[in-house]
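Lecture notes, continued. The same structure-token format from the folding unit now serves as the input rather than the output. Read the line below as a description of shape only.
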């Protein structure tokens, strides 16, 4: 291989003495949608990695639950195992975790970090719950933890927040962090029924086996907690994220969004203030031509508002095997470089997770046989929340109110009262 260096006078010198490529041993835990695509990508990009980094990535072990099934992957069968201790004894330099959850995945990550290995993971649940302690473990043992693929799929937000934006004075984050729900909401806006939209998302590999965590907002809550860690130094496990999803309400919320001239998105948000950090994931009505409104299908978007660098927006494919595998490979290559030391996330800072309730606008809708708005008006009066507009759709019996800015506790009180009175309310943020 030819090496290019610069002399002290700035002249480029090409050294024709070939440098022996280093072999870096990689073990991959989990070989499903993401892990399988990572295996393919490592094979396909072998010559790029060799030329670019002078590194040969050698897959030394692959852990799965069912070693007997045919995966159609360029892997010799003896590398595949379901035996965790055999996988661990492969003594890899880099361990990739693509299993998911906080069971075996955590065991594997802890073991690898404890022996000083570099760990790359796509697992947001693990990083959101145990990221701070895992980073400490990595620091103690001289290992490293990277998790670009855990947030935003192929959107390079983790590294940007940690490196480039860390000196820009980040004050707030807002974005679409769940590709599955965004795909489903995009289909609903076109008139596709919810069940059909979910089936399509599954077929395309965007929806995980059990999409509950996508639909109830927990997946996006984990991701905004991880980004809050990187942006504000808060322990993600301690951040209480106000979380509302679209389970059982997606069709109605989408209709409310249309009635008020916007489109529905599941928006995650976090902001720093003097008391700590406030974070939420909520169905939100946004204008169709806004950055969030234009993000369709599995696209993820992250807007980072900073003190010194304005608002920086990053977007791209937020789900699917290949984009996620590409993010994993980026971390693997970075960890394989000789000078790559340290840990991905800094130590946990002093940020506190104290919920504040910034006033926001909301749309509340109820269903009434009679289609009369007097009940909703009475409940609004009772809770001291004012409506800017009230619309009655007498055909469907839906009554919608666009509220003046109100804090969380007010709108929560209104929702509780409406629910108790049997009005079956749905609530969305309004950012149009
Ligand atoms: N899919 C996406 O679009 C996406 C996007 C971003 C991040 N992620 C994250 O990536 C990770 C993997 O997701 P995925 O969609 O690839 O999941 P998946 O298709 O269900 O793959 C999971 C893999 O883990 C293996 N596995 C499960 N339990 C195991 C156990 N107890 N012991 C050993 N192996 C076990 C499975 O083995 P078998 O194959 O034998 O069943 C399978 O190979 C998760 O953390 C997920 O949140 C996924």
């Amino acid at each position: 291989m030819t090496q290019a260096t610069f002399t002290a006078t700035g002249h480029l010198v090409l050294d024709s003495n070939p440098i022996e490529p280093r072999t870096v041993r990689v073990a991959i835990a989990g070989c499903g949608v993401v892990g399988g695509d990572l295996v393919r990508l490592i094979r396909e990009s072998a010559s790029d990695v060799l030329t670019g980094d002078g590194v040969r990535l050698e897959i030394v072990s692959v852990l799965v639950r069912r070693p007997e099934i045919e995966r159609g992957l360029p892997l010799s069968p003896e590398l595949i195992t379901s035996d965790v201790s055999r996988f661990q004894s492969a003594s890899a330099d880099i361990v990739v975790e693509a299993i998911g959850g906080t069971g075996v995945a955590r065991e594997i990550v802890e073991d690898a970090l404890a022996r000083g290995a570099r760990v790359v993971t796509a697992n947001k649940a693990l990083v959101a719950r145990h990221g701070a302690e895992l980073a400490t473990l990595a620091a103690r043992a001289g290992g490293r933890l990277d998790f670009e693929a855990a947030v935003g799929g192929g959107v390079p937000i983790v590294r940007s927040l940690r490196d480039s934006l860390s000196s820009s004075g980040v004050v707030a984050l807002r974005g679409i962090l769940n590709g599955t729900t965004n795909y489903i909401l995009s289909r609903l806006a076109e008139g596709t029924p919810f069940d059909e939209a979910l089936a399509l998302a599954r077929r395309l590999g965007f929806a995980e086996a059990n999409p509950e965590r996508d639909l109830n907002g927990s997946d996006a809550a984990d991701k905004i907690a991880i980004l809050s860690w990187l942006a504000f130094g808060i322990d993600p496990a301690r951040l209480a994220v106000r979380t509302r999803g679209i389970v059982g309400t997606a069709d109605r919320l989408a209709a409310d969004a249309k009635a008020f001239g916007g489109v529905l998105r599941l928006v995650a948000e976090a902001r720093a203030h003097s008391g700590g950090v406030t974070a939420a994931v909520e169905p939100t009505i946004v204008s169709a031509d806004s950055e969030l409104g234009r993000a369709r299908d599995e696209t993820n978007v992250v807007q980072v508002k900073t003190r010194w660098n304005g608002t920086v927006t990053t977007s791209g494919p937020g789900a699917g095997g290949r984009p996620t595998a590409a993010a994993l490979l980026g971390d693997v290559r970075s960890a394989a470089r000789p000078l790559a030391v340290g840990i991905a996330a800094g130590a946990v800072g002093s940020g506190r997770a104290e919920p504040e309730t910034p006033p926001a606008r909301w749309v509340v809708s109820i269903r009434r046989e009679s289609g009369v708005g007097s009940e909703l008006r009475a409940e609004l009066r009772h809770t001291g929340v004012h409506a800017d507009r009230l619309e009655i759709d007498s055909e469907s019996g839906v009554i919608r109110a666009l509220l003046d800015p109100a804090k969380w506790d007010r709108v929560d009180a209104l929702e509780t009262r409406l629910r108790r009175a049997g009005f079956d309310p749905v609530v969305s943020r309004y950012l149009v």
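Point for the exam: The chain has 15 helices and 18 strands.
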